[in-house]
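User: Sequence in, structure out. Go.
Assistant: Echoing your sequence, followed by the structure tokens.
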Amino acid sequence: MAISPVDFASLLCSRLCHDLLSPVGALNNGLELLADETDPEMRARCMELLSESARVSANKLKFFRLAFGAAGGFGERVDAREAQVAIQGLLGDNKRLTLDWVIERTELTKSAIKVLLNLSMIAGDALVRGGRLTIGAEDNDGLTEIVLHAEGPRVVLDPELRETLVSGGASEAITPRAAAAYLVHAIAAEAGGSVVVSEGEDGSILFGATLPSSR
């Protein structure tokens, strides 16, 4: 990688801490309120909020474990349904967002799974007012082709993320927010694959990645 392993680990840890701060902070606040609250109705409401925050935190941790960590066992391929569940857990709470899963493959390589998950997170964030995210992947002639189509009333992709996905960006300028984009680029580049990002005439964004299906 153009970025040193230590620097990339720092970027990734910063991104994870940022994303987990809100639900974990809500847990802490809820516990403090619960400790001082005596009204049964308010205590019940606090418990609901605690349960929701705990669920969101768990879903994010499951997603990050698969997207960034060594989840999936010791085999070279991972059940694609694990990725589907992780994406639904991360993005499913957005009632304005519709997820279409059009992957028929039961298994994908670990590299493909990580690319798929990280692109899904980036594409989901780009749908700032909701919309539809279609996620597809298939193997053709020794290659795994991953395609995500994000369409909605307002689709915004930060230029830094676009540049980092396609070219890796300038190592000295990459921020924690772009850690997932850099990981996608690095996995594809190391495998001899590629990443493309293109905009449709309707304002939608198409994310594509090609990887050898054996890596």
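User: And one key feature?
Assistant: The mean pLDDT is 90.
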